[in-house]
Structures are given as structure tokens and as C-alpha cells.
């Protein structure tokens, strides 16, 4: 095998590799003989099929198989001998000698970007602040109140009074566009919570003030992004008749409520809420600490990010941005930006992510941080638990899709590296309010 370097520009590398035609032919012939040993053909004993017939039937497929193996082995040898670590899968182009039976030497080119030289900063010199918040009685009481509100019942309003915010109005309605009733726009005995969400903007609000027995025509405009395209953005009228009015009866926060929810008593509910909120606070605390750590590490990434990796990361980000833009989900600060500005902003984010990913990977590699099989199994089980009744299908999916398993391995590895760095860094605990803890900075990592 002969290797000639053709490109060395920054992180870009290029080589031309030549493999003697005799070596290719030898491997091809050996592989054809292997095929012939197992081939059954009328008129020939096993293993005695002539090479000419084997060549005719399998020559092209065997040639492709041999070339793939030779190119893979040669590329791996090239990388190992020169100590090169490609950032992404090398690009290989066949130049000559790839046809079956060719007398020319096999010649192909290999181009790739290498990983940059990364100097790991002094991790013990990092100073971090871990925000902490205690679960207090007020937080638990607030959660209990929200639970009770979801358990409330509604009783019929007997007195003659107008419908008000918070009531539930039972109505019949007929929707019309340009005076003609439209499909799906009519219904009877529909409960409408006044002040709640779920109806076209302005629908519930115009029922307020009506009394039982009243009839009224209201006008609304369907949102531009309404699910039914034939109605989106159109003005419609609704003939409404208020048939019944109900008011909420708040559930009492006591042992009876707890038992209704399946608990022994109220104290057990309070303990569960306290535990769950405490776990949420711990997760928020970790997210804030991780963000601060990544921000400080980003300041120390003074190496070049492989352009190909940045391009790939940016493409993923931009696909999401395009989807969000079509669905009207862009962040407020992005809505007024032109496309060039948006692209520039998110390309910086892509570069930051790539650099941080490379730095964390290098820290993990140097310090022998790995993901165990037990951790992968635990992650797969956790994923399966998200789909009750379909656990076996989830297990089979991961067993057949190594890339999906890699998708689980990545976050586990990153978290283990983060934990390793936090152990080395100087971390100061700081007590804050739950509101301060929840004030997450803009996520760009």
C-alpha cells in the first residue's frame, strides 16, 4: 500500500492511497472460492463450480465486497500509522482500478477533518455556585390548592343571575360563515368554562352576561393557525342559547380529599408533594450548575472546531428553527430578525456546542470515563417505562438500532463528565428562593 498526502490545511487532511492490483485480484479470487464452496449448482459437485461461472454470477458483488473491505482496512491503517483522529467519517472516492479484473492498481482518495489538539484547562481552578432552595409549607399548600381545584365539582346555579367568569355555561350553538352553517360548527349541551381555555378566542367571553334561556349571536375570528385549514383566519358567527349555568364548588383540603386521591390521609399527600417538589428543585439546581460550568468551559475552548462538525450541528439546529417558524413557535427575540442574522446567531451556537462537546469528550477520554452496560440497560428500561404496555417493543427497537443506543449513551457520558468536573471544582452553595432557582438563563447549549 502506498500513501501520498495531498492536503494539510488547518484541520483538513487528504491522502491518495494505492493498493496493488495483484492484492485486489488475490482477495477477489479467494472470496469467489469461498462462495463456490457453499454453492449448489446442478451438474457440479460442491466446491467444484468453475471459476468462470462464479465470476459470471458473483463477480460484481464480490468485487464490491472486496473493495469495501480493502478501502476500510487501508484507511484504518493510514489513520493508525499517522496517529490521526478524524472528526467525522472520512470521505472516500475511488479513482481507478475498481472494475472487476482490472489490471490497474486500485487508487482512491481519502479526505477528512482531524480533531483539534485540545488542552484541558485546570478544572480544580473553576469556581461554581450551586443554587439551593428548600421546600417550605407555603409551596406545599399552593400545590394542595391546585390539586383541590382540579377535584372541584360544579353545582347548578338556581338564582336568576348573569353568567360570570368562573362559571360553566351549558349551551347549544350553531356556527355560520357568510350566513351558512359549516360542518362541525354545531353542537348541543356543550359545557363552556368561562374564563378557561379551549375555545376560539372571544367565544367564552361573549357568553358572560347572558342568563339562562337567553339567545345571542356572537362574532369570532378563527386563529390563522387553526387546525382546520378551511376555517383558519375566517370570521364566523355563532347562534348561542344558554340552557344551564353551573358554579364551581371548591373541594376541601382534608383527609377525605386525600382518600379520594387514593392516599391514607392528607399528611401522606403533603409528604409526597414535598418529595416531588424537592426532586424538581434538585434538577433545577443541577441544570443551573451545569449551565454555569459550560459557560466557564466555553471561555476556555481556544481551539478550532472542525467545520464539518459545525455544519452538521448547524443543519440540525436550523431544521428545528425552520419547523418552529412555520408553526409560529419562534422565540420572541428571534421573530424580528432577518434570516441572515438568525443564521449567524445559530451558527455561533452550533460552534459553541461542538467545542464544548469535544472538550467534554477529551476530558472523559483522558480520565477514562466510560458508560457501562449496566447504565445503558437502566436507560433503556427508563425509556421503556415511558410507554406502558409497549415495553417489549421498545426493548426490541433498541436491540436492533445501535444508533438509538448511542443516543442514550451520549447524555449519560456527558453527565458523568460533568459530575467529574464538579467534584474537582470549587463549589459554593447558595440559598435562593424557588422563583430565583427557576429563573433559567437562555438555553443555547
TrEMBL record:
GO terms for cellular component: cytoplasm. Involved in protein export. Acts as a chaperone by maintaining the newly synthesized protein in an open conformation. Functions as a peptidyl-prolyl cis-trans isomerase. This is Trigger factor. Belongs to the FKBP-type PPIase family. Tig subfamily. The keyword Ion transport does not apply. It comes from Komagataeibacter swingsii. Keywords: Cell cycle, Cell division, Chaperone, Cytoplasm, Isomerase, Rotamase. Residues 166-246 form the PPIase FKBP-type domain. Consists of 3 domains; the N-terminus binds the ribosome, the middle domain has PPIase activity, while the C-terminus has intrinsic chaperone activity on its own. SUPFAM superfamilies: FKBP-like, Triger factor/SurA peptide-binding domain-like, Trigger factor ribosome-binding domain. Coiled coil: none annotated. It holds the Pfam family Trigger_N. It is an enzyme of class 5 (isomerase). The lineage of its organism: Bacteria, Pseudomonadati, Pseudomonadota, Alphaproteobacteria, Acetobacterales. InterPro entries: PPIase_dom_sf, PPIase_FKBP_dom, Trig_fac, Trigger_fac_C, Trigger_fac_C_sf, Trigger_fac_ribosome-bd_bac, Trigger_fac_ribosome-bd_sf, Trigger_fact/SurA_dom_sf. It catalyses: [protein]-peptidylproline (omega=180) = [protein]-peptidylproline (omega=0). One of its GO terms (biological process) is protein unfolding. The keyword Flavoprotein does not apply. PROSITE patterns: FKBP_PPIASE. GO terms for molecular function: peptidyl-prolyl cis-trans isomerase activity; protein folding chaperone; ribosome binding. PANTHER family: TRIGGER FACTOR CHAPERONE AND PEPTIDYL-PROLYL CIS/TRANS ISOMERASE, TRIGGER FACTOR-LIKE PROTEIN TIG, CHLOROPLASTIC. Its EC number is 5.2.1.8. It is found in: Cytoplasm.
Amino acid at each position: 500500500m502506498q500513501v501520498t498526502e495531498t492536503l494539510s490545511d488547518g484541520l483538513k487532511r487528504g491522502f491518495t492511497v494505492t493498493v496493488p492490483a495483484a492484492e485486489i485480484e488475490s482477495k477477489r479470487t479467494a472470496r469467489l472460492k469461498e462462495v463456490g464452496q457453499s454453492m449448489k449448482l446442478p451438474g457440479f459437485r460442491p466446491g467444484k463450480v468453475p471459476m468462470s461461472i462464479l465470476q459470471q454470477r458473483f463477480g460484481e458483488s464480490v468485487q464490491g465486497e472486496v473493495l469495501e473491505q480493502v478501502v476500510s482496512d487501508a484507511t484504518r491503517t493510514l489513520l493508525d500509522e499517522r496517529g490521526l483522529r478524524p472528526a467525522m467519517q472520512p470521505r472516500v472516492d475511488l479513482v481507478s482500478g475498481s472494475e472487476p479484473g482490472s489490471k490497474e492498481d486500485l487508487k482512491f482518495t481519502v479526505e477528512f477533518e482531524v480533531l483539534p489538539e485540545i488542552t484541558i484547562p485546570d478544572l480544580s481552578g473553576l469556581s461554581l455556585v450551586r443554587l439551593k432552595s428548600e421546600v417550605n409549607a407555603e409551596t406545599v399548600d399552593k400545590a394542595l390548592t391546585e390539586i383541590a381545584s382540579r377535584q372541584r365539582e360544579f353545582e347548578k346555579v338556581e338564582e336568576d343571575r348573569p353568567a360570570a367568569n368562573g362559571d360553566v355555561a351549558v349551551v347549544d350553538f350553531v356556527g355560520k360563515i357568510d350566513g351558512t352553517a359549516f360542518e362541525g360548527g354545531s353542537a348541543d349541551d356543550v359545557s363552556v368554562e368561562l374564563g378557561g381555555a379551549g375555545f376560539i378566542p372571544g367565544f367564552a367571553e361573549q357568553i358572560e352576561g347572558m342568563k339562562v334561556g337567553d339567545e345571542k349571536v356572537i362574532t369570532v375570528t378563527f386563529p390563522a393557525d387553526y387546525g382546520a385549514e378551511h376555517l383558519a383566519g375566517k370570521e364566523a358567527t355563532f347562534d348561542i342559547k344558554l340552557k344551564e349555568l353551573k358554579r364551581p364548588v371548591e373541594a376541601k383540603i382534608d383527609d377525605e380529599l386525600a382518600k379520594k386521591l387514593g392516599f391514607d390521609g392528607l399528611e401522606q399527600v403533603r409528604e409526597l408533594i414535598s418529595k416531588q417538589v424537592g426532586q424538581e428543585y434538585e434538577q433545577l439546581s443541577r441544570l443551573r450548575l451545569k449551565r454555569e460550568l459550560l459557560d466557564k468551559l466555553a471561555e476556555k475552548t481556544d481551539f478550532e472546531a472542525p467545520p464539518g462538525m459545525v455544519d452538521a450541528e448547524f443543519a440540525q439546529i436550523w431544521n428545528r428553527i425552520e419547523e418552529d417558524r412555520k408553526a409560529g413557535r419562534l422565540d420572541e427575540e428571534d421573530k424580528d430578525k432577518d434570516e441572515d442574522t438568525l443564521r449567524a446567531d445559530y451558527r455561533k451556537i452550533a460552534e459553541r456546542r461542538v467545542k464544548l462537546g469535544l472538550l467534554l469528550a477529551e476530558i472523559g477520554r483522558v480520565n477514562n470515563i466510560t458508560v457501562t452496560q449496566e447504565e445503558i440497560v437502566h436507560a433503556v428500561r427508563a425509556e421503556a417505562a415511558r410507554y406502558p404496555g409497549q415495553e417489549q417493543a421498545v426493548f426490541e427497537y433498541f436491540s436492533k438500532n445501535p444508533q438509538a443506543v448511542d443516543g442514550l449513551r451520549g447524555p449519560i457520558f456527558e453527565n458523568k463528565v460533568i459530575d467529574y468536573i464538579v467534584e474537582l471544582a470549587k463549589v459554593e452553595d447558595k440559598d435562593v428562593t424557588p422563583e430565583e432557582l427557576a429563573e433559567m438563563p437562555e438555553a443555547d447549549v
